[in-house]
Amino acid sequence: MSDDLKVSSNTDIAAKKAIQEAAEEESVIIDIGPGDPQIFTQEYLLCWIHEELKNRKAAHRHCGLLRFLIQGPWCQKFMPIWQSYTTALASHRSILSSLSEDREFVTRCRNFIYDLHSFTKSQSRNRLEGTGHEFYLGKPYFEHTQVDAVLKIEIMGGTVESNLRELARKKAATYDAMCASHDLAPIFELALIITWNSVSGRTEILHD
2 by DSSP, 3-state: which? Predict the structure, then answer.
């Protein structure tokens, strides 16, 4: 390896050894900044990407890295993640495109995100609890068929429904209450591609 390259000081979680100890054929060189190439192991990157996706980080942040990895000599290791990403993305776009044929769908999604973040306000809380759904999916936000479609939206690591069920399982195991703003909103923002920043300042909330 070139003396100009820096080896990451991190530990390869999968191999349970320092990255400096990895064989050259196990290594991946990534320029993490202008003129700042560093060496990581393939297994370390696999673990890192999987954990990032599991934590519901925006998948598009990793698109450039994944494209780089599947074009290098390490393509066989990283191709399954890329294929999973592109399949989920295509399904995601297809479902949202179909749902958006209802001209009011996007507005109601914004209302939904607004209310999740405003759960402490009585009007928002009453609307959410009035859905009669454990994750607040239903009218006045979504029709029954739309609820089914939203739950099927693929986000990296599973569907909206599987992410919600896993969240509920973890909360039940720790006897912790589910928070509309901190627990549910991030999942739905990722699925519906609507951010709190794009909603918080709106004055034309449909149901206010």
Answer: coil
